[in-house]
Specification:
By secondary structure, this protein is an alpha+beta fold. Helix content is 27%, strand content 33%.
């Protein structure tokens, strides 16, 4: 697997290319059609650590081989009433690592492990992780893993579905957050597969 042309192509990818890989408004699935861009930009290790779990540091992420990333996050327009079942956020992120083995290590030793280790813990804003369930992430070119996370707080329950997948030394992430206890595996998978397609296109030289 390590010698295939796609993996080789990802070694020509730099941080400046990541912006062209994340999904834009026109790429969103029908369930997120009409959502507006809320945040967009580079994501360095310091910012990742700042918004990560307790004990996260930029040094830890650097040591894990992460070079940098880029994210785009979309939210409903202001005329949407927040209520159970409403998708309150959809986002895609692409992370660049030094090599593909480190992408795999991140998926198991940081992404999955950090969520599972923080089960029952407070994660800020009065939120507590109530449950973490692994999901089957099917249809991807290479390794992929999914999590469904249920959080509770003063405002009630929030469900998050996250899928991480590897394309050479790139890590793609698709994320959907929904108000209440709801399943969004299909929607998140749809976003992740669209993201994977974009990542491959850009890695092979198309924008």
């Amino acid at each position: 697997m390590t010698s295939n042309p796609l993996w080789t192509a990802t070694y020509r990818v730099g941080e400046a290319d990541l912006e062209y890989m994340t999904l834009e408004t026109t790429d969103l699935p029908d369930d997120l059609r009409g959502y507006q861009l809320a945040r967009s930009g580079p994501l360095d290790n310091a910012e990742m650590a700042e918004n990560g779990f307790k004990g996260s540091t930029a040094e830890r992420f650097r040591n894990a081989g992460r070079i940098g990333g880029f994210m785009r996050e979309f939210v409903p327009t202001s005329d949407v009433t927040p209520s159970s079942g409403v998708n309150f956020v959809g986002a895609t992120v692409v992370h660049l690592f030094e090599n593909p083995e480190q992408v795999s290590g991140w998926m198991s030793d940081i992404f999955v492990k950090d969520f599972e280790d923080n089960l029952g813990e407070s994660v800020g804003s009065g939120q507590q992780i109530i449950s973490v369930d692994r999901l089957e992430a099917d249809g991807f070119y290479d390794e992929a893993v999914g999590l469904r996370v249920l959080q509770g707080g003063p405002a009630g329950l929030l469900s998050s579905t996250v899928i991480d997948f590897r394309v050479g030394r790139l890590l793609g992430v698709a994320f959907v957050g929904v108000i209440g206890e709801h399943e969004r595996t299909e929607l998140t998978t749809e976003m992740a597969l669209a993201l994977e397609k974009r990542m491959v296109q850009v890695a092979l030289g198309a924008r």
